[in-house]
C-alpha cells in the first residue's frame, strides 16, 4: 500500500542563473534587441530583461515561446498582469495600437532562435551583458 506524501510540493523559484547566457542573448537577438511592449532599443542603453508571457509565478514555463525581450521598466510595471491588459496600458502610454503590439509579440515568439550566433558572441566576449554593451 502506498503512503500518501506528507511533504509539501516543491516551491518554484527562478534563481539567478535560470537561463544560459547564450539563450538569453538569442532571445534578445530574435526580438530585434528591443522591448516587446514599448519598443525601447539597445541603442538607447535600455536595460533588458526577459518577460514570461504567462508569468512564471502562475505556472508559465521558461521555454523561448513564453519569453520575450522586455525593458526593465515594462517588466517591473507588468508584474503578474495579463499580457493583453498590460499591452492595453502600454499602448495608451506610448500612443501605439494594442493589437499591433500583440501581433508583434506573436511574430517574435514564432521566430527561430539564433542560438549558434549567440553562442559564438558570448564565447568571444564572455557574457550576454558584454555583448549588449558593445552593441549600445
TrEMBL record:
<keyword id="KW-0255">Endonuclease</keyword>
<dbReference type="InterPro" id="IPR003615">
    <property type="entry name" value="HNH_nuc"/>
</dbReference>
<dbReference type="InterPro" id="IPR052892">
    <property type="entry name" value="NA-targeting_endonuclease"/>
</dbReference>
<keyword id="KW-0378">Hydrolase</keyword>
<keyword id="KW-0540">Nuclease</keyword>
<dbReference type="Pfam" id="PF14279">
    <property type="entry name" value="HNH_5"/>
</dbReference>
<feature type="domain" description="HNH nuclease">
    <location>
        <begin position="22"/>
        <end position="76"/>
    </location>
</feature>
<dbReference type="GO" id="GO:0004519">
    <property type="term" value="F:endonuclease activity"/>
</dbReference>
<protein>
    <submittedName>
        <fullName>HNH endonuclease</fullName>
    </submittedName>
</protein>
<dbReference type="InterPro" id="IPR029471">
    <property type="entry name" value="HNH_5"/>
</dbReference>
Amino acid at each position: 500500500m502506498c503512503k500518501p506524501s506528507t511533504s509539501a510540493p516543491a516551491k518554484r523559484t527562478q534563481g539567478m542563473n535560470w537561463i544560459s547566457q547564450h539563450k538569453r542573448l538569442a532571445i534578445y537577438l530574435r526580438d530585434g534587441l528591443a522591448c516587446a511592449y514599448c519598443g525601447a532599443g539597445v541603442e538607447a542603453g535600455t536595460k533588458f530583461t526577459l518577460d514570461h508571457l504567462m508569468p512564471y509565478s502562475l505556472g508559465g514555463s521558461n521555454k523561448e515561446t513564453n519569453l520575450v525581450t522586455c525593458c526593465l521598466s515594462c517588466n517591473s510595471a507588468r508584474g503578474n498582469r495579463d499580457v493583453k491588459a498590460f499591452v492595453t496600458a502600454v499602448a495608451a502610454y506610448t500612443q501605439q495600437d494594442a493589437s499591433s503590439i500583440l501581433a508583434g509579440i506573436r511574430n517574435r515568439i514564432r521566430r527561430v532562435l539564433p542560438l549558434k550566433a549567440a553562442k559564438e558572441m558570448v564565447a568571444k566576449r564572455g557574457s550576454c551583458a558584454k555583448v549588449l554593451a558593445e552593441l549600445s
